[in-house]
Amino acid sequence: MTSGSVELLVLGLGNPLLGDDGAGLLLLDELQRDAAGWGARVEFLDGGTQGLMLLDRVAGRPTLLILDAVALGGAPGTVHVLRDVEALGLDSHHSQTAHEGNAGELLAAALLLGECPGQVFVVGIEPAQVKTGIGVSEPVRAALPAAAAAARGIVEEVMAGLAQPAS
Q1: Which domain holds residue 135?
Q2: Residue 65: φ, ψ to 5°
Q3: What is the C-alpha separation between 47 and 111, in angstroms, rounded?
Q4: Are the CB atoms for 3 and 64 separated by under 8 Å?
Q5: Cα–Cα dist 11/48, whole Å
Q6: Contact by Cβ (8 Å): 19, 130
Q7: Which residues of 103-127 are buried (b: 16+ CB within 10 A; e: fewer)?
Q8: Lesser CB count within 10 Å: N end or C end of the chain?
Q9: Which of 129, 158, 9, 154 is nearest to 69 (CA)?
Q10: Which pLDDT tens digit goes with each residue over 84-111?
Q11: Model confidence over 118-136: pLDDT tens digits?
């Protein structure tokens, strides 16, 4: 890839009309505030509830960071940071979100088709409630700064790995 090409796709998933299911999109908004510092090598995408329709957008990417509400059975507001094998096993954990084609299903489909990104990260927040209503619950709102910091750390880690040594 050329130095100006996109190396990292940051994909926000969720439905802001279903309470805590909108957490991934809030995280995406937070990370986009730092976009200027990362340059054109990072692409941000609001995937909303498109689910498996996003397959062509993630296929074959060097690196993918998914931001989503991730229900793994923890306490509401728990921040989950999953990397590669853990992220690819999301579907087997029966992670649930209110939208079709959650992160686990999207990654499982990409893997099945041989189109999985080279590196995969998921930063998610355990939802307290996924029901009709605008706005996230207090546990999820309180977890947003920690989740955003974890996601920023991953972007910085990826960008540092892409830095070319001076010749």
Answers
A1: 8-162
A2: -120, 115
A3: 19
A4: no
A5: 9
A6: yes
A7: bbbbbbbbeeeeebbebbbbbbbbb
A8: C
A9: 129
A10: 866 666 554 444 544 445 777 888 888 8
A11: 899 999 999 998 888 889 9
Q: How far apart are CA 147 and CA 74, in angstroms?
A: 15
CA pair distance 134, 123, nearest whole angstrom: 21
Residue 167, in any domain of the structure:
no
Neighbour-count burial of 25, counting CB atoms closer than 10 A to its CB (0-12 exposed, 13-18 middle, 19+ buried): buried
Over residues 67-81, the mean pLDDT reads 93
Query: Is the residue at 144 inside a domain?
Result: yes
- H or E element at residue 154: helix 138-162
CATH code of the domain covering residue 131: 3.40.50.1450
Instruction: Assess if residue 24 is contained within a domain.
Output: yes
How many structural domains does the chain have?
A: 1
| Average pLDDT, rounded, for the chain | 84
Residue 14 makes CB contacts below 8 A (sequence gap 6+) with: 21, 22, 23, 24, 25, 48, 49, 68, 69, 97, 99
Rounded distance between C-alpha atoms, residue 135 and residue 19, angstroms: 5
The residue whose two tokens read 């990104």 is: 117
Q: Is residue 63 part of a domain?
A: yes
- 87: amino acid identity, one letter: A
